[in-house]
Amino acid sequence: MKGLFCQIDRSELKFFTQETTLPEVLGSHEVRVQVKACGLSPVDLKFLEDVGMQRSLIPVGREVAGVVQQVGPKVSFFQPDDEVVGILPLDSTWSGLCEVLDVDEQHLVEKPEKLSFVDAAAALQDGLRAYSALHTHARMAAGHTLLVLDGASSLGLMCIQLACYHGVKVLTTAHSQQQHTFLEQLRPAVARVIPVYKNWSDLLPAVQEETGGLGVDVAVDSGVRLQEKEEPEESRLLPHKHDIISVLAVGGHWVTSHQDLQLDPPDCRLMFLKSASLSFLNPEAWVAAGAQQGRYLHILRDMMEKMSAGVLRPQAEAAVSVQEVLVAMENVQLQRRKKAVVQL
Fold first, then answer.
1. What pLDDT is stored for residue 272 in this prediction?
2. CA distances from residue 16 to 26, 52, 272 in whole angstroms, order as listed
3. What is the CA radius of gyration of the chain?
């Protein structure tokens, strides 16, 4: 039984498959799961190093969906043949690409019967990020105005749909004409799609027009630019930090995915004048903090229910085969493809 792993080779990540062996005896609260689909996300070496979990051999693929084969003697949530989904913990020694793996029952929730394994595994990470951004950090409520930067991204799409469901007015940005057309066809519809692929200077006037000059209550980004010049070409598609601060309303909240965000004194002064607040979006905090386990599982259950009901419809991911997994993971790590899902 092979799993997908990576290790650092001359400052670069090297991905490879390796044989793994199941233990003969299950732990008291462990569940043995036959994996049907696994989502692939980039490996964040810096984060693993910061939390002291960087190892010589790092398992890859943590977003899994499958069927319970066997349960430990003290397992109370699941029985054999239950369909489950979950995110493997940071310290797991298992790769989600293993055909069968063992995981503590506290990291799994039931998968609705009519939801496919591939869709469930593909949406886990981005759905968790969207829930964390809008519910946990921003305290989203009906009547708020939300700006989703890069609405056509997998995170952006989940944020848009979740916000529309709760009666929030949604504005979003498009990075190309194709994305613009796609976002305008979403149902339920967003209030406005702002094209920024020509010039980011169009953002502030559009937001002011839609909000009567008040600004947005919540802004969620997928990354930001820290400098106006001398940045890689792909970074120019990201908003500058001042763009986001400028569109916030008084008491507004900015949720950022940028790990190394640096605010200069003028930025802080503008935030202070608006009495605005800032949160960092790190979905791994749920898995790392055992005290929040109940809320974390509640989020996963609610996400699965909304996906089953058609409220949340993630972008369709073309599932790759196990034979294509090495190429797919390398593309994900290089950001050529932001997401991939493997069907076992």
1. 95
2. 27, 23, 49
3. 21
